[in-house]
Design a protein that fits this description.
Chain A has 109 residues and is mostly beta strands. Chain A is built from no helices and eleven strands. In chain A, a hairpin with a 2-residue loop joins strand 9 and strand 10. Chain B is globular, with a radius of gyration of 13 Å. Classes of the chains: A mainly beta (109), B mainly beta (113).
């Protein structure tokens, strides 16, 4: 059972454009994490959000946790080639993490 | 502080063989989780160990097993390898069992021929 659906699955944009990635579920999570993964490497933790409605900013990246703690979004402003990678969301419920389907982002110089 | 380390990074095995993968968590972390990542299925949870005890298990056959040592290092074993076991196997550690953020290692790329 896939608890977390991410959209879009693939995204290819030009350098400088803005984009938003969505992570949706019908389940409530105690916290939600976003990761970025590069080919052949493990996911790297970007942020953890824990409170419904919480917004966190990490330079050009803005993360939001839905009020009901069922969904989240990641917005990137002025994307750069270094942002290229697979973005994964992971929701924590109880003591287990459930990963989203992933969004593969390519930023073209 | 050193991150999560996994050995080996790459492995090629033949169908029917068995394989053991190793993971050393971040110093002070007592929980280790294992995941399988494939292009078709994404990241799937295998199992989690805390204080040498398996606390959670995903939906994988009994050919996949693991253990954790007193120093929190963990090993994962896959017996009777199948072609479909080809994947990136990721290990993640966190400080506690119920709480704490997960930090991943670089993974072991297993290819079964």
């Amino acid at each position: 059972t896939q608890l977390l659906e991410q959209s879009p699955q693939f995204l290819s944009i030009q350098e400088g454009e803005n984009l938003t990635v969505y992570c949706n579920s019908s389940s409530v999570f105690s916290s939600l994490q976003w990761y970025r993964q590069e080919p052949g490497e493990g996911p790297v933790l970007l942020v953890t959000v824990v409170t419904g409605g919480e917004v966190k900013k990490l330079k050009r990246l803005t993360f939001q946790f839905g009020d009901a703690r069922k969904d989240s979004s990641l917005h990137i402003t002025a994307a750069q080639p270094g942002d290229t990678g697979l973005y994964l969301c992971a929701g924590a419920t109880g003591n287990q993490f459930y990963f989203g389907t992933g969004t593969s982002l390519t930023v073209i110089p | 502080k050193a991150g999560v380390t996994q050995t080996p990074r790459y492995l090629i095995k033949t169908r029917g063989q068995q394989v053991t993968l190793s993971c050393s968590p971040i110093s002070g972390h007592r929980s280790v989780s294992w995941y399988q990542q494939t292009p078709g299925q994404g990241l799937q949870f295998l199992f989690e160990y805390f204080s040498e005890t398996q606390r959670n298990k995903g939906n994988f056959p009994g050919r996949f097993s693991g253990r954790q040592f007193s120093n929190s290092r963990s090993e994962m074993n896959v017996s009777t390898l199948e072609l479909g076991d080809s994947a990136l196997y990721l290990c993640a550690s966190r400080a506690g069992w119920v709480t704490g953020e997960q930090y991943f290692g670089p993974g072991t790329r297993l290819t079964v021929t």
